[in-house]
Amino acid sequence: MNNFFCDIITRLFYLFRKINIMLKKIIIFFVLIINTLLAADKVNLYFNKNSIKNAQTTVLYLNGKDIKEPKLTITDKKININFNKLPLKNNSYYALIPTSYYDINKKIKIIVSYIKEKNKDFKSIYLNVKEGDYKSEVINVKSSKVKLNNKAKERTQKEYKEAMNIYNTFSTKKLWNKKFILPLHTPITSDFGTKRVYNNSLKGYHSGTDFKANIGTKIVAANDGVVVLAKNRFYAGNSIIIDHGQGVYTCYYHLNKFLVKPNQKVKRGQIIALSGKTGRVTGPHLHFSARVNSVQVDPLQLIKTLNKL
User: Fold this and answer.
1) Which residues form the M23ase beta-sheet core domain (predicted)?
2) 141 and 17, same structural domain?
3) In terms of Cα–Cα distance, which of 43, 52, 124 is closest to 292?
4) CA torsion angle 32 37 38 42 (round to 10)
5) pLDDT, tens digit, 9 for 90 and up, residues 106-162
6) Whole-angstrom Cα distance, residue 191 to residue 205?
7) Do 26 and 73 reside in the same domain of the chain?
8) Domain count, the chain
9) What pTM, to 2 d.p., does this model score?
10) Which residues on neighbouring strands pair with residue 296, listed in sequence order?
11) pLDDT tens digits, residue range 281-290?
């Protein structure tokens, strides 16, 4: 009889033990499901690089299910930017974040807003910007190109205002589908960011990358876009600006001859001009520069960033 009860007790013990193990597995299963659902419902915000050099561009990614109208504000610049849908990915968005040459060793606060479940939510994130190791160079040009008379000052101010009106016009449509290319493949004669000393007077920094180019060298478009400017200017000489959409612009200066017109659509690799030595120059070359959401940035670093999207 005692053996009978012992056997029952033993069987019950193992039965309860199995039930307990099954209950634990069921609980773990439901916890995993709940965590998965919560993760899917969560909104994530992150940079492709959260620490960059001044005048470089980074990408801010936003992942979230059922979010609408995602936007951001770069607080210190008061720049408002719309997010763009990431190709081939659901519920994923990106925005290009430019930093100025004068953003040195600082944290830039970015506020992101979006609508979810009829409520407007906000998130903030910080971008670390450190000083780049830019060089310095001395350039000797005609004094008339450094010390401007009233007529020249009036012209440069008008040209600057015209250019900024272009750069401040953000189109949401992405006009390119392939990777960006360089406008020509020759040695670089002056890097972006180099401090420029004209006739022993510091006049800022080099706003683009200079490529060696004899007069008449063919210059191609870095990518698909629309020509928004093709004219002669005081500093840049014969200049072309191409709008690639989503706030991205590439610029081609000191040209000899235009092969495109304003409002003309151009294709990646299309010949748009012949190089020259017009404007404030010491010799023939191509000055290639870029803007993102109106901010002047390193064009070669921008191309690398865009080509990784």
Assistant:
1) 205-299
2) no
3) 52
4) 140
5) 999 999 999 998 899 999 999 999 999 898 777 666 666 567 899 999 999 999 999
6) 10
7) no
8) 3
9) 0.83
10) 291
11) 989 999 999 9
